[in-house]
Amino acid sequence: MIRLTAKTISTLLAAALLYACSGGSPAAPGGAGGVEPDGGAIGADGGAIGAVGGVTYTKDVAPILQDHCQTCHTTGGIGPFTLLSFGDAKAMVGPMVSATQSRAMPPWGAQNSAECAPPRPWLHDMRLTDAQIATLKAWKDNGAPEGDPKDAPPPRVPEALDLPGANFTTTPQPFALTTTTKDTFRCFVIDPKLAQTRYFNGASFTPGNKEIVHHVLLFSDAKGESAKLADASGGYDCFGGAGVSQPNLVAAWAPGAAPMELPPNAGVPLTAGTLLVMQIHYHPHGQDLSPDATKVQLRLSDTPPEYTAITSLIGNFKGPNGADGLLPGPNDNGKPQFKIPANVSGHTETMRMTIPQSAGPKLYVYGVAAHMHLIGNAEKVWVDHAAGGSECMLQVPAWNFNWQRMYSYDAPIEQLPTVVPGDKLTVQCTYDNTTGNPFMAQALADQGLSAPHDVSLGETTLDEMCLAATIFLQKTK
Q1: 223-256 burial, b if ≥16 CB within 10 A, otherwise e?
Q2: Above pLDDT 90, what percent of the chain?
Q3: How far apart are CA 129 and CA 112, in angstroms?
Q4: For residue 134, what is the enclosing H or E element?
Q5: Running DSSP on this structure, what letter comes out for residue 262?
Q6: Res. 214 pLDDT band, cuts 50 70 90
Q7: Looking at 76-80, 352-356, 435-439, which range is the least confident one?
């Protein structure tokens, strides 16, 4: 399985870099730029921003690292090493340049291309410009000098690792796996002790054992049914969902995800007495079965929001549903079926959902996330409008299971892209079920297998998914 230790991240990063260099690299975000023959960096306007002899850490490199790298590569951050000082950066200059040249780092999967130009810019876009990438290479080629300390920017003020404004925090009782060969789905009942309706506005999840936490889903349980399912430890097994009659998905986490935050004037109502159910998918790890205690932080408001947030999972259809569901694809035998043959690269599966009349007159699309498992290679999400025309909402051309996140649009709510009843949302996923895929090769090695096998749709880590998570905002009635 994917192991999120520093050693494994380094191993998979190296594999991903090789993969990117062999053709898996995403497209650049646009603009001119590159490297001059002598190694000098070229700016987006085509002008040189520094010959090899002029690029230094203090003047040119430190600002880039502060703005794009130190959020993760900081003390206590999720990066496997720090990039806070000149010594840190010089020690990692080779891997840093390789990772940025291939655009494996910063880990930002959403890319623009000729076939996909998202309708709005991305909020908190981490991508480097061509000029910044060229500057890092020019610094390396110049021997990575420190430069004049007077040129250094003030030290970056670290961001809080916790959810800003969190007012409810809890950690369920630790849970330990008892198997090294099977995936486990465990639900934990959380009682926020709501005496009146409150409004969810943000969440953050911190796994206690990152080795085994595959994903986290947080559901609301307005009827309190989950309390009857829980054992003495406050949890219960729950393969396939929350196990209650009317679960409402509130938030989610996957490896690499940032805290989930809604706009200040948006939220999800949680009525008095509502319980929360945190479903965690644990994947087996033969070397570490240490107990997990995943911390949950929530931001709850007493003020009714102007917009109601609706989190939806679109995809994972096992078959056709009229004109929707799983669409016909390659290797189908008769009716559409989700099957990724062994030793096949470039295989696609496509899912479609029509926005129902019950959705209301208009939904604003605040964010979109892609989700696949280990043999996922690329994902694209677009909408065909009933009134005509199409919009590409998200394209992740170089999928990386270790770095998943909700991509939110950077625009006022009233200027966000919209969908209306009758519009069709389509999710297309591309897979590489060969040993040329470093993530598949790692998974096979972990299982003691020597060759790929046919893969179908399913919940476990070695199954596959084709899923888009979306956050819609609707004017509160």
Answers
A1: eebbeebbeeebbbebeeebbbeebbbbbbbbbb
A2: 69
A3: 13
A4: helix 130-141
A5: -
A6: confident
A7: 76-80
Spatial contact of 256 and 399, defined as CB atoms under 8 Å apart: no
Helix (H, G, I), strand (E, B) or coil at 6: helix
Spatial separation of the C-alpha atoms in residues 186 and 197, rounded to whole Å: 27
Answer yes or no: are the C-beta atoms of 274 and 192 closer than 8 Å: yes
Element (H, E) at 14: helix 6-19
d(CA 461, CA 49): 46
Which 8-state DSSP code applies to residue 413?
A: G
The rounded Cα 450 to chain-centroid distance in angstroms is 29
Angle formed at CA 142 by CA 141 and CA 148, multiple of 5 degrees: 145
Q: What is the pLDDT of residue 15?
A: 34
> How buried is residue 356: exposed, middle or buried, by Cβ count under 10 Å (0-12/13-18/19+)?
exposed
Phi, psi of 238 (to 5 degrees): -155, 65
pLDDT digits (tens, 9 = 90+) for 4-20: 233 333 333 333 332 33
When pLDDT is averaged across residues 225-230 and rounded to a whole number, the result is 97
pLDDT value, residue 460:
82
Which residue segments constitute the domains of the chain, with CATH numbers given?
Answer: 27-111+119-151 (no CATH), 168-305 (2.60.120.310), 310-475 (2.60.120.230)
The two three-digit tokens of residue 42, written as one number: 């070229």
Chain centroid, CA 283 distance in Å: 18
- Region of 189 (left: φ > 0; alpha: ψ -120 to 50; beta: rest) is beta
Question: Which residues 6+ apart lie within 8 Å of 143 measured at CB?
Answer: none
Are 220 and 248 in contact by the 8 Å Cβ rule? The answer is yes
Instruction: Tokens 């935050």: give the residue.
Output: 261
Could you tell me if 470 and 408 are in contact, meaning their C-beta atoms sit under 8 angstroms apart? no
Classify residue 104 by burial, with Cβ atoms within 10 Å: 0-12, 13-18, 19+. Answer: buried
